[in-house]
Each structure stands twice: as C-alpha cells, then as structure tokens.
C-alpha cells in the first residue's frame, strides 16, 4: 500500500521519508474528516463537540510523535477547510441576501425600543444552512460595546440532568440589557426528548415572551430533520421522537405567539455552494493544480448539490486528497441526501425533477430512499394525487390511480408495491395535460391523525362499556355501543331531562309536589355523542404536533368522571368536608341530574341541599369554561383527562364484585 | 353430610353415563380392525401384507377428510400391538395444536429415545408385536415446512426403532424429501353405498328412529365424508331425543312443515338445519329472482336470506350443485356461472361481507341466466 | 332507571318473544343438563347473545348474572404485553378474539388449557361440572386459532363447553362446524319487532296514536327503519317518544348520525363526479373511519345508498365494484385506499351509465 502510494507521490515529493510522514498525517486528516462528516449534525462551526476535541487532541499527539522521529513538511496543510474557510465577515456567509436582510432586521428590532418588538427569533432549517454563523456575525455587527463583554451568550447543555437549568440560564441572562446587551443564542437544545424537560423548556420560553421587562434578544436555532419510520409514526404519531421540527420542539402555542418570529432557512442552493467551493479551489491551488479540470468540475457540481455547505467543503477536501493517491475519481462521498417526504411526494405527483432527469431516474431516486418506509409515501400519494392540475382531470384517471393504490395495499413485498404505486401514479398523471399553473399545496397523510383519533375514541367507547357494565352489569359490544348507543343514548337522555324539566316547571307553577321518580337519569349520563360528534377530518399542509388540538376536546367528562365509580379522577380539590358531603348526597339523592345548566338552580329549589348544588354548579361551569387568562401561560396537559388504568379498574371491580353484584339490577 | 356423599356418588355414576352418551359416535364406531374399514380395499390389502411380515415402512396417508385415514392407522396399530401395548408403543401427535420445529424435535425425540418395553406373553401370542414404535402425525399438511424439514432428519436418526405415519389431506403440502421417504397410500372418497352400509349399522346399533331418505340426505350433505355424516346423525339424534322428552316438542314440530308424525323421528329438515344447509325453497327463490332480472326483487330476496342468517358460503355451494347439473343451461352459461361462483367463494373465504357478496353473486347470475 | 332496551332485556328463554322454535330447541338442550359445543350464528341484532345467556341462566340459575371483568395480561413470544378483557361469572367466561389480534391462537389455547385443568366441582349438586366458554365474534378468529380450537374441543370436552357466537358460518373452518351443533338465529321479522314494541307500549308510557290501525302503522314504521335489529328498534322508539309529544305514522324517523353522513356522501358522489369531489369524499371517509365505524359497514351502507340513486346499469356495476373492494378490505391493511378506490370507480360507473 505504502509503496504503491509512494511511487505515485514520488513524482511530486522528493524525500522518501517525508512521504511516510505525510501519509501518517493524511490518515489523521482523514480520520478527522470522517468524524466531521458523520458527527456533523449541527454543532456550530466554532463549537466543537467534546468527542471531536478529543480526536484532534489525539491527532496532535500522534503528530508530535511522528515529528519526533522525522522532520515535518511544513507546507502540508493539516487544518480542516471547514474551519479554515469559515466565513469571517457577513459578506462571506453563504446565505440568500433576502434572508440575511430579514434576520438582520429582526434582530435590530429586537434590540430596538418598539413596545411590540419581537422577543424571540426562531431560525429553522436543515443542517449547514448557516443559521448560527449568521446569528453570531450579526450579534457582533449589531451590538457595539465599549466594554470587552462578549456580544453573545450561548446556552450549553450541562451534563447534569436537572431540567430546571434552562430557565435558570434564561433568568441569569435576562439582565444583559442596556450597556451590557448581549444576544442570547440557543443552539444546543436541552434534552427535549425527555418530556418533562421539554415542557419546562417550552414554559421558560413562554414566560420569556410574555413578560414585559426589557429583555435581551433571544435567538433559537433549530436544525430540522425528520427521521421517522412507519412503526414509530403509528405508535407515537408524528411527534418529537421521530420528527425534529420547530413545531414539535416548541409546540404550537409558542409558535403562534405574536412575539415570536420564525424565519425558515432553506438549504444552501447550488449556485452559492458552487461559488464557495470555487473560491476554495482557487485558494488551495497547490493541491488542485494537479487535478485535471474535467475531473474536478463534475465533482464540484456534485458536492455543490449537497445543500449543506459544511459537508460540501469536507467532501471536497477529502476528495482532493484521495485523488492524489488514487487515479480513479470514483468514490462515493458525502452526505446521503435523503429526500424529504413532501419533496418525494412532489416528485411522484408533479414529476418535478432536476435538469436532464427522466421520470425513471426520479422514481428510482425516490425508491432508494423510501423502500423501507413505503407506507408513508403511499399514503402521501393517495392524499395528494388529486392536487395535480388543481384537481382538474378526468375522474377515470383518478379511479385508475386509486384502484391501483388499493390493489397495491394488498400486495407484498412492500418495496415492489411502492414502486408500482409510484409508477402508476406518475405515468397516469403524466397523461394529463396541465392547464392550471397554480399548484395546490401538498397535504401530510391524514392516516396518522386518524389513527390517533381512533385510539382516543376507542378509549372512550371502551370506558363506556366498562362503566355500563359496572352500573348495570350489562355487557355491550363495541359496535353496538359505537353505532347505536353512542348516538341514540345522548339523544334519549337529553330529551328526557328536557321533558322532565318542563314538567317540573309546570308542577311548580301550580304548586304541586314533584314525584321523586321523575328525575332522570340519576347517574351522570351521556350528554354528547360517544367519542364526540362526527366531523370532517381535513388534511394538514404541515406536520402537526401529535399533542395538537384535534385531540384536546374531550366529551362526556362528567359521565366518565363519575365520582361514584371512579375514586381517583376527582382530585383533592376543595376541603375534605365538601367531598364527603358530595359523596353521601350522590348516594342518597334521587334528584341528581348531573345537568350542566340553569336547571341546576331549579334543582336547588326543589332539593333542599342548596349548598352542594351551588358548589357543583360552579364546578361544572369551571369545567366547561376554563378561565382564559390562566390558559395563556399554562402548558396544556398531555392528553385528555386522566383515566384510571385498566389494571386499577379490574382491582376496583374485584372489590365491588362482592358488594354490588349480589343483587342484579333487573 | 351423608346425603351429600350419597348425592355425589349417585351423581358420579350418572356423569360417567353422561360421558358414555357424550362419546362421539365417530370414536365409538371407529373400525376396530382393518377388515372393518369401509371401501379402502387397496390400502387395506397392502397394509395387511405388511402386517404378515411385520415390517412396516414409513407411511403417508392422504385423501379427503372422513375417508378413514386415522381409523386405518389406529386399527393397524391395534392389530400390531394389541390394546395394551399400543399405549406405550404409539404416539399420536396432532399437528394443529402443537406444531413447530421445537415440538417435532422434543416430543418425537423423547418418545423415540425411550427403549421399547417388552410385550407380555399373552400379547406376543395374539399380536405380531414388532420391535419398533409408531409415531402418527395427524394433519401433517398443516405443519410448517421448517418443521417438516426437521422431521426429515429425525426420521432417519430413529428409523431403527420407530416408524412414522403421516396423515394429511393434501399431499402437495408435504415437502418432497419427506414424501419420498414414505410409502404413499391414497384414500378415495367413500362412495355412497359403502357409507350407507356403515350408517345403517349405526342406525341399528343406536336404535335411531329415522324418516325415509334421511340417511341418503345425510350422505348427500356430507359429500363422501363419513365422519361428517356420523356427526350429523349423532347431533340430530341428540337434539330429537331431548326434544321428545321436553314438553315443548310440539311447538318445535309445528314449525316443521314436512313432519307428519309428531314423535321424535329425525326428519330430513332437521338434518339440514343441523348441517347448516339452506332449504330448497330459499335456494329456488334466489334462482327465480335472478332469472326475473328485476333488481328490486333481487335486492329484497337477498336481504331477506341474509337476515334469516343463511350462510352465504352454503348458498354458493348449493347453487353450484343446483346450477352446474342443470341440463337447461348451456356450457357457456355454466362456464360463466362457475367463474362467478368461484370468485364469490374465494372472497367469502377471505372474510368479506356476506350481504354484498351474495348481492353481487345474484346480480351477476341474473345476467347469465 | 335505565334504558328500555336494558330494562326489558329477557333473561330466560321463556321471556323471549320470537323464534319460539329455536327457543324450544335451546330449552330442550338445557333441560338435559348438558349440551354439546354450540355454534350460534345469525345476523347482528338477532338476539344471539341474549339467547345464549338465557340458556346459561336456565342451566346455572341467576348466578350467571353475577359477572365481572378481568383484565388479563398475556406476554407474546415477541415479549409484547397484551391486555384483554374477560367477562366471567363462576359458571362461564367470555372472550372476544378481536382483542387479541394475531395472538389469538396462543391466548385461546393457554386460556382453555388453564380453565380445563382446574376442575369444576360443585359439591352441593355435583351437577354441572363443566364451565362454559363463550367466544364472541368467532368468525374473526384466525384460521390458525380455529384449527387449534378443533383439537382443544375434543381434548377438554370433559370440562368445558364452547359456545361460539358468530355472524356467519362462512369463515368457520369445516372441522369446527362438524364438531359443533349449529344453531341459526334469524333476525326478527318486522312483525316480530312490531309485537315486541307493542308489548313494550303496555309497560311503558309511549305517546302512540289511539286508533289500533294507526298505532300498528306507527310501530311498523319504526320496526322497518330499524333494519330488523331489535336493539335498534327499542332505542329508536325510546328516542322518538322522548323527542315527540305524539307519535304518528308521519313522525319523522331518527337517522343515526353516521348513517346520514354516508347518505349525504352517496348523494354527493352521484351528483358530482369529479376529482375535487373525491378529495372531499376522503375527508368524509376519514371522518367515519376515525369514529371507529368499521370500514366494511361504511362500504356496505355506501353501496346500498348509491344503488338507490342510480339507474339499473350502474346498480349492478356498483355492486360488482363493491364486491371487489370488499375483498381488498380483507386483504389489505389500510381501509382508506379501498374506500376511496370504491368511490372513484363508482363515479366512473355512474358517469358511463348516464
């Protein structure tokens, strides 16, 4: 190996000894680069991860050892180009000028005095899109200190697991205003995969945007990426576990806050990347002069397509060295650029492609990326094929596509089924003449949203079945409950309550005493359709946070939270006395409607237990109309009201088994 | 206290009686020796020959259900070892409940490894008692091919002390290497005459009261499956014996249009009900509306027969018998009918909706008829 | 106080209002103190379960009604925890295989083995030494599980009796059919339902018309709109009498919410046959699916609603298409493909027939 290399190298370098050294160094260089490429997620250019520091330390060590044994070639440059050619000024930063202007004006206004100025700037984009570089540069450019205080403070996640650290950091940074103004940069995120930490992180930021004190500008850089597979999507929905975006990290509540500005950065485009790489080639002419232009040029273009400048430069450096040893320029380098879901769907449906690419190539490239997660792409095709030509095409074509997609759902193996689906969709749509220029936005497959909803409704229905079983010892089937009882029971119950109410009015007006058995139903009853009313499930153009509002509303809360059955859902709310009274009343009362409106007041008049009635009335009011002002700062609880777990339930059932089932109700 | 004990004793004797009564006739009337096997002359002759030489090859019995495969091997083991010895010499494994490689390996190995117990003198006098054990693998075609491959090796390893008998419905589902190690015996579907003789024998033994043509009907529904035929007969007998002892029997019989005498004779009707087959008038009605080609009528009649709970797959099967042997239809028509019947049958087996499939079937038929 | 449908639920065979011949048969079986394994089949809402529970009531007395739910956990071979409910009394227990997913064979085998190994000894009578196991929705049992059941039925026939409840016998493998006594429970006829409703009106205050003919006419209308499902009829009449001051033959019927959604969908598909309508249909289909309405029921209802609207040629085509997509529902994994495929194809069929 060494001898072969040496022979080639000896043309350029005279000393045999040196070559060995250089080879050594080169290997170290390669080592570092590999680390750089694989470990390059989005650590800032300046901030080295501890691992990398270690490796470079190691490299220095090795180098010093080799130095001691042989003289070193001082002309050989061992630095990483990524660091060497890091932009020094704003003009060097490879970013679209318009975006740069946007970011600049945002930070300026954050530093300004406008009372409605933004508090928080969120920069989101793929890795290597210069988010943090730009921020740091701007901080240096815009904040002018007379003192030596640094212009920005950066959050570094501590190794300790204390989840309060982030808010402490924000608190301690909040005084950096006026004279000592500094920009606060959050690039390294706390461990947001841990739910508690994430909530605290979000809460701290919410507090940040809602306080009225003067605060320094805060910039959060989020490197977005999705790394999902179908399994995860089903188990967890589209959430932070598999999808790393501003939505999942910050949550909708924060993103919708008017004092937050979000700027999305795209990956660095071809022209800019190429310009940058060209500059490097010129500056490193000592290396590139030996590489023929016809070999170099296609490589430059290839590297420029990566969309991530850092990996483009690394790849270029690595390739240039490789080329010196091996005449073949064929080496697979760089980032496995994965095609994002929407991009892939767009390719399959609109046939959007790079220059000179055939449909076939497009499909192959999509297939390469999605053969292992075919479900989401197939669903994406179904969700979006109708967006072609603004839905203006023959219904026959649509039926061909859906028929094929349906057939392919029954076929195995998955990758072939996916390929057939893609090809059919693409070729069928290709036959349609495009008339409309306006493109409809693509939707994210609804299947996952629907799946979540199904789970929650199933939960409701199972709860209903269990409760009915406990109350009446009647076991309903799932379908009966959902299809018949779910709709008809609330109808019956509500009408019955309404009917009785008017009767009571009448009896009261003629001063007649009211028969006890009129009050129905005794126990909390279904007031709303089981699992909530049917409503159209629309597609979303963006990825939704799984904790989102379509799951927030829960129905029939009073029914499920029946204190008589469930012991642990009613929190330790007021004082103990109230609770006791409430319980005893429910048990003895014939008049408990569980209604939620003014009828409660009438009930008070009828029953003499005024105190409870009033309390309950307020309670139910609170349940239905939560106080808005609190909501603003409150991070919503994960999902729904706490249900008792099945295990608890069964134990509970065993308990009441002896007491309550001795006398069946019928 | 004593009464309770007495009660118990009385009860237990009664329960053994119940057990006796509950014993499936299929077991009760299983052939005791090879001569009693109905209508498998070829297999029986060959096996008898091997019986004389007492040297048995590995065997593979295949054929449709209810043709006496299990009965044959059980009878054979009885003749080889006698009732006592066969308990320790024969292992019967039912593949459907315990299959998979581990079972094949463990159970068979353990059994094969046990040394052969010595026959008693009396047994030796009466039976050949060859020095090997027999392992019967029933429903071998539902074993995974992995398990079957594992079996191949086991068969060879223990061939000095064991003989295998594989029983299956479809020989195509037995892997080749396994099949090639066995002598194959094909079991033909029973023809009605053989089966009828057997049923008549049971009728006499059990003293069943039957109306005319009931046995013929049983055989027709069973379609060459003697086990099925015997099971139907037993179910019908049980139902009718309980009915006759019950005061409600009159009520039931009134519902039976073709029963002339209200005692517990088994009727053709009740056999059909037990087997789940569809009455002729319902079937004819379906054919009639298909011929009428009036969609609303088709819709209504199909709706009714589904609501009545008639099994769609049963309707498909019976329509097949009805239409394919109908001389008035041309070959082309029959081709098309077969196709749609086949499609419907396949879909129903895939667990589709009976109502939709039946509606489709009858609508399609209306175009053909 | 409970719903009428619960309040007047029959608990023994003599209280059953229709299918007297079936009741007689079951009653005869129960008087003998023992019965073979049963396969009770018939359309949903026909009263299969009620009858089965009635037999048990007859056999074991009211102790059968003292039921409880147990949650069992089962660890599968892949080390996944599986939770499912078992409803049981001291005489019987009930399982629903659809809770078990792909593991139904192992779970059922284990469960039956466990039950069979614990002998039921009743010292006071010594009578019913067997335990009854009811398997609901037996047609959704995998073929694998059914094959396993066939052996278990014979092996443990001393200790346990199985009652399989199923909507159809089409999915039951022949060996099971031949080992069980088949009992068909047809759906109640419209007349049967009218009678039950009439009987109910004597016990419960229902604002029915005075005149006998109008009264029967009203009940008949309710019965007809309940699709031969008694539970539905009872819920309907209760809802109607709560909603209206007076019930007459012209009282508008209550439509189930999901059914009217499907009806509207069918109407729109027939009226407007283009790609945007398919997109809108998708929202509606997802709406129904998300609400746990079974895909097969959506397909069936939609087909029946559509064929009411279109001409003869399209009718038979739509049925044919429905039959194909019905099968795809069974073979595939995601219902939306097949439902949307059906919608698109039906549009083409309607378009062609116009």
UniProtKB/TrEMBL annotation, chain A:
<keyword id="KW-0547">Nucleotide-binding</keyword>
<dbReference type="GO" id="GO:0005634">
    <property type="term" value="C:nucleus"/>
</dbReference>
<dbReference type="GO" id="GO:0003682">
    <property type="term" value="F:chromatin binding"/>
</dbReference>
<dbReference type="GO" id="GO:0033314">
    <property type="term" value="P:mitotic DNA replication checkpoint signaling"/>
</dbReference>
<protein>
    <recommendedName>
        <fullName>Checkpoint protein RAD24-like helical bundle domain-containing protein</fullName>
    </recommendedName>
</protein>
<keyword id="KW-0131">Cell cycle</keyword>
<dbReference type="Pfam" id="PF03215">
    <property type="entry name" value="Rad17"/>
</dbReference>
<dbReference type="Pfam" id="PF25812">
    <property type="entry name" value="RAD24_helical"/>
</dbReference>
<keyword id="KW-0067">ATP-binding</keyword>
<dbReference type="GO" id="GO:0006281">
    <property type="term" value="P:DNA repair"/>
</dbReference>
<dbReference type="GO" id="GO:0003689">
    <property type="term" value="F:DNA clamp loader activity"/>
</dbReference>
<keyword id="KW-0227">DNA damage</keyword>
<comment type="similarity">
    <text>Belongs to the rad17/RAD24 family.</text>
</comment>
<dbReference type="GO" id="GO:0005524">
    <property type="term" value="F:ATP binding"/>
</dbReference>
<feature type="domain" description="Checkpoint protein RAD24-like helical bundle">
    <location>
        <begin position="336"/>
        <end position="452"/>
    </location>
</feature>
Automatic annotation (TrEMBL), chain B:
<dbReference type="InterPro" id="IPR013748">
    <property type="entry name" value="Rep_factorC_C"/>
</dbReference>
<keyword id="KW-0235">DNA replication</keyword>
<dbReference type="InterPro" id="IPR027417">
    <property type="entry name" value="P-loop_NTPase"/>
</dbReference>
<dbReference type="InterPro" id="IPR003593">
    <property type="entry name" value="AAA+_ATPase"/>
</dbReference>
<dbReference type="GO" id="GO:0006281">
    <property type="term" value="P:DNA repair"/>
</dbReference>
<dbReference type="GO" id="GO:0003677">
    <property type="term" value="F:DNA binding"/>
</dbReference>
<dbReference type="Pfam" id="PF21960">
    <property type="entry name" value="RCF1-5-like_lid"/>
</dbReference>
<dbReference type="GO" id="GO:0016887">
    <property type="term" value="F:ATP hydrolysis activity"/>
</dbReference>
<protein>
    <recommendedName>
        <fullName>Replication factor C subunit 2</fullName>
    </recommendedName>
</protein>
<dbReference type="InterPro" id="IPR050238">
    <property type="entry name" value="DNA_Rep/Repair_Clamp_Loader"/>
</dbReference>
<dbReference type="Pfam" id="PF08542">
    <property type="entry name" value="Rep_fac_C"/>
</dbReference>
<dbReference type="GO" id="GO:0003689">
    <property type="term" value="F:DNA clamp loader activity"/>
</dbReference>
<dbReference type="GO" id="GO:0005524">
    <property type="term" value="F:ATP binding"/>
</dbReference>
<dbReference type="InterPro" id="IPR047854">
    <property type="entry name" value="RFC_lid"/>
</dbReference>
<dbReference type="Pfam" id="PF00004">
    <property type="entry name" value="AAA"/>
</dbReference>
TrEMBL record, chain C:
<dbReference type="GO" id="GO:0006281">
    <property type="term" value="P:DNA repair"/>
</dbReference>
<keyword id="KW-0235">DNA replication</keyword>
<dbReference type="GO" id="GO:0003689">
    <property type="term" value="F:DNA clamp loader activity"/>
</dbReference>
<dbReference type="Pfam" id="PF13177">
    <property type="entry name" value="DNA_pol3_delta2"/>
</dbReference>
<dbReference type="GO" id="GO:0005663">
    <property type="term" value="C:DNA replication factor C complex"/>
</dbReference>
<keyword id="KW-0539">Nucleus</keyword>
<dbReference type="GO" id="GO:0031390">
    <property type="term" value="C:Ctf18 RFC-like complex"/>
</dbReference>
<protein>
    <recommendedName>
        <fullName>Replication factor C subunit 5</fullName>
    </recommendedName>
</protein>
<dbReference type="InterPro" id="IPR050238">
    <property type="entry name" value="DNA_Rep/Repair_Clamp_Loader"/>
</dbReference>
<dbReference type="GO" id="GO:0031391">
    <property type="term" value="C:Elg1 RFC-like complex"/>
</dbReference>
<dbReference type="Pfam" id="PF22534">
    <property type="entry name" value="RFC_C"/>
</dbReference>
<dbReference type="InterPro" id="IPR027417">
    <property type="entry name" value="P-loop_NTPase"/>
</dbReference>
<dbReference type="InterPro" id="IPR008921">
    <property type="entry name" value="DNA_pol3_clamp-load_cplx_C"/>
</dbReference>
<dbReference type="GO" id="GO:0006271">
    <property type="term" value="P:DNA strand elongation involved in DNA replication"/>
</dbReference>
<dbReference type="GO" id="GO:0031389">
    <property type="term" value="C:Rad17 RFC-like complex"/>
</dbReference>
């Amino acid at each position: 190996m060494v001898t072969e290399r040496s022979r080639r190298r000896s043309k350029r370098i005279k000393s045999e000894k040196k070559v060995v050294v250089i080879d050594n160094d080169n290997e170290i260089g390669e080592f570092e680069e590999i680390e750089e490429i694989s470990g390059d997620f989005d650590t800032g250019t300046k901030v080295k991860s501890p691992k990398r520091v270690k490796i470079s330390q190691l490299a220095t060590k090795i180098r010093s050892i080799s130095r001691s044994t042989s003289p070193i070639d001082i002309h050989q440059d061992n630095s990483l180009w990524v660091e060497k050619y890091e932009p020094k000024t704003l003009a060097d930063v490879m970013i679209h000028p318009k975006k740069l202007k946007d970011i600049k004006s945002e930070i300026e206004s954050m530093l300004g005095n406008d009372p409605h100025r933004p508090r928080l700037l969120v920069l989101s984009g793929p890795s290597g899109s210069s988010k943090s570089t730009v921020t740091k540069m701007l901080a240096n450019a815009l904040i002018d200190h007379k003192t030596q205080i640094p212009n920005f403070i950066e959050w570094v996640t501590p190794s300790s697991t204390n989840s309060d650290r982030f808010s402490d950091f924000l608190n301690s940074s909040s005084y950096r205003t006026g004279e000592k103004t500094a920009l606060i940069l959050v690039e390294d995120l706390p461990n947001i995969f841990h739910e508690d930490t994430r909530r605290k992180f979000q809460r701290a930021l919410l507090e940040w945007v809602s306080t009225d004190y003067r605060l320094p500008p805060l910039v959060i850089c989020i490197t977005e990426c999705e790394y999902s597979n179908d399994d995860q999507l089903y188990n967890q929905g589209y959430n932070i576990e598999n999808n790393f975006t501003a939505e999942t990290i910050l949550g909708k509540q924060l993103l919708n806050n008017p004092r937050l500005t979000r700027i999305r950065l795209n990956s660095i485009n071809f022209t800019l990347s190429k310009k940058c790489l060209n500059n490097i080639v010129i500056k490193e002419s000592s290396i590139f002069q030996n590489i023929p232009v016809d070999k170099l040029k296609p490589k430059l273009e290839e590297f420029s397509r990566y969309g991530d400048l850092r990996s483009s430069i690394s790849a270029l450096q690595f390739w240039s060295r490789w080329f010196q040893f091996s005449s073949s320029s064929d080496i697979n380098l760089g980032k496995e650029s994965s095609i994002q879901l929407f991009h892939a769907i767009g390719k399959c449906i609109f046939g959007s492609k790079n220059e000179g690419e055939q449909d076939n190539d497009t499909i192959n490239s999509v297939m390469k990326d999605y053969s292992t997660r075919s479900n989401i792409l197939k669903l994406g095709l179904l969700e979006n094929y109708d967006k072609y030509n603004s839905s203006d095409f023959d219904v026959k074509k649509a039926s061909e596509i859906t028929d094929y997609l349906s057939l392919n759902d029954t076929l195995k193996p998955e990758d072939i089924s996916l390929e057939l689906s893609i090809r059919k969709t693409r070729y069928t749509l290709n036959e349609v003449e495009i008339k409309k220029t306006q493109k409809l936005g693509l939707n994210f497959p609804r299947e996952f949203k629907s799946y979540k909803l199904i789970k929650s409704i199933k939960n409701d229905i199972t709860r209903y079945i269990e409760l009915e079983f406990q109350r009446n010892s009647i076991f309903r089937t799932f379908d009966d409950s959902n299809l018949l009882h779910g709709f008809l029971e609330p109808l019956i119950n509500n009408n019955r309550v309404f009917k009785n109410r008017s009767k009571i009015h009448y009896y009261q007006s003629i001063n007649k005493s009211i028969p006890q058995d009129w009050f129905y139903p005794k126990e909390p009853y279904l007031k709303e359709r089981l699992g909530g009313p049917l409503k159209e499930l629309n597609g979303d153009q963006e990825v939704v946070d799984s904790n989102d509002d379509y799951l927030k509303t829960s129905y029939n809360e009073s029914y499920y939270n029946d204190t008589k059955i469930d012991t642990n859902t009613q929190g330790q709310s007021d004082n103990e006395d109230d609770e006791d009274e409430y319980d005893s009343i429910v048990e003895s009362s014939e008049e408990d409607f569980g209604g939620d409106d003014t009828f409660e007041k009438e009930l008070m008049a009828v029953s003499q237990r005024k105190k409870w009635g009033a309390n309950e009335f307020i309670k139910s009011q609170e349940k239905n109309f939560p106080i808005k002002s609190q909501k603003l700062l409150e991070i919503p609880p994960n999902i729904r009201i706490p249900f008792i777990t099945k295990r608890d339930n069964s134990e509970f059932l065993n308990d009441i088994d002896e007491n309550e089932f001795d006398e069946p109700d019928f | 206290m004593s009464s309770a004990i007495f009660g118990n004793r009385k009860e237990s004797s009664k329960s053994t009686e119940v057990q006796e009564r509950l014993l499936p006739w299929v077991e009760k009337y299983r052939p005791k020796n090879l001569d009693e096997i109905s209508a498998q002359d070829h297999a029986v002759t060959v096996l008898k020959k091997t019986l004389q030489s007492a040297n048995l090859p590995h065997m593979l019995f295949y054929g449709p259900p209810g043709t006496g495969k299990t009965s044959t091997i059980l009878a054979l083991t009885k003749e080889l070892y006698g009732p006592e010895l066969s308990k320790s010499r024969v292992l019967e494994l039912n593949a459907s409940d315990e299959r998979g490689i581990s079972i094949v390996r463990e159970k068979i190995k353990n059994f094969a490894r046990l040394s052969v117990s010595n026959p008693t003198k009396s047994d030796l006098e009466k039976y050949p008692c060859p020095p090997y054990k027999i392992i019967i693998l029933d429903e071998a075609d539902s074993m995974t091919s992995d398990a079957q491959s594992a079996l191949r090796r086991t068969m060879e390893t223990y061939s000095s002390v064991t003989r295998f008998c594989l029983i299956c419905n479809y020989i195509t589902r037995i892997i080749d290497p396994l099949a090639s190690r066995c002598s194959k015996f094909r079991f033909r579907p029973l023809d009605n005459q053989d089966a009828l003789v057997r049923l008549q024998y049971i009728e006499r033994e059990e003293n069943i009261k039957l109306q005319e043509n009931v046995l013929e009907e049983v055989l027709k529904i069973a379609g060459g499956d003697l086990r099925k035929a015997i099971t139907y007969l037993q179910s019908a007998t049980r139902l009718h014996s309980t009915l006759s002892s019950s005061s409600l029997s009159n009520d039931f019989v009134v519902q039976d249009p073709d029963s002339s005498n209200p005692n517990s004779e088994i009727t053709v009707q009740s056999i059909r009900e037990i087997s789940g087959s569809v009455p002729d008038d319902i079937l004819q009605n379906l054919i009639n509306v298909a011929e009428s080609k009036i969609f609303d009528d088709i819709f209504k009649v199909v709706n009714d027969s589904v609501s009545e709970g008639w099994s769609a797959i049963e309707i498909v099967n019976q329509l097949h018998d009805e239409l394919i042997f109908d001389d008035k239809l041309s070959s082309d028509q029959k081709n098309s009918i077969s196709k749609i019947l086949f499609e419907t049958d396949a879909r129903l087996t895939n667990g589709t909706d009976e109502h939709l499939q039946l509606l489709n079937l009858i609508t399609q038929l209306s175009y053909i008829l | 106080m409970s719903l009428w449908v619960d309040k007047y639920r029959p608990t023994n065979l003599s209280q059953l209002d229709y299918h007297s011949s079936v009741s007689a048969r079951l009653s005869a079986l129960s008087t003998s103190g023992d019965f073979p394994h049963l396969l009770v089949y018939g359309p949903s809402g026909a009263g299969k379960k009620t009858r089965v529970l009635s037999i048990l009531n007859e056999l074991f007395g009211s102790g059968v009604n003292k039921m409880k739910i147990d949650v069992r956990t089962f660890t599968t071979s892949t080390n996944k925890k599986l939770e499912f409910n078992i409803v049981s009394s001291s005489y019987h227990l009930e399982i629903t295989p659809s809770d078990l997913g792909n593991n139904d064979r192992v779970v059922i085998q284990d469960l039956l083995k466990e039950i069979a190994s614990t002998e039921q000894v009743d010292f006071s009578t010594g009578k019913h030494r067997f335990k009854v196991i009811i398997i609901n929705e037996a047609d959704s049992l995998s073929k694998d599980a059914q094959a396993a059941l066939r052996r278990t039925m014979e092996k443990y026939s001393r200790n346990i009796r199985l009652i399989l409840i199923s909507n159809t016998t089409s999915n039951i493998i022949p060996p099971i059919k031949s080992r069980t006594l088949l009992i068909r429970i047809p759906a109640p006829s419209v007349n049967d339902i009218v009678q039950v409703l009439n009987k109910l009106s004597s016990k419960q205050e229902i604002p029915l018309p005075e005149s006998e003919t109008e009264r029967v006419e009203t009940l008949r209308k309710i019965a007809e709109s309940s699709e031969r499902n008694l539970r539905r009829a009872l819920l309907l009449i209760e809802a109607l009498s709560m909603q209206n001051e007076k019930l007459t033959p012209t009282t508008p019927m209550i439509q189930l919410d999901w059914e009217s959604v499907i009806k509207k969908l069918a109407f729109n598909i027939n009226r407007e046959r283009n790609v945007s309508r398919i997109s809108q249909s998708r929202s509606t289909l997802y709406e129904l699916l998300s609400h746990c309405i079974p895909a097969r029921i959506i397909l069936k209802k939609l087909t029946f609603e559509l064929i009411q609207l279109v001409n003869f040629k399209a009718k038979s085509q739509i049925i044919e298409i429905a039959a194909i997509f019905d099968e795809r529902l069974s073979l595939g994994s995601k219902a939306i493909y097949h439902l949307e495929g059906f919608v698109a194809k039906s549009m083409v069929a309607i378009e062609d027939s116009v």
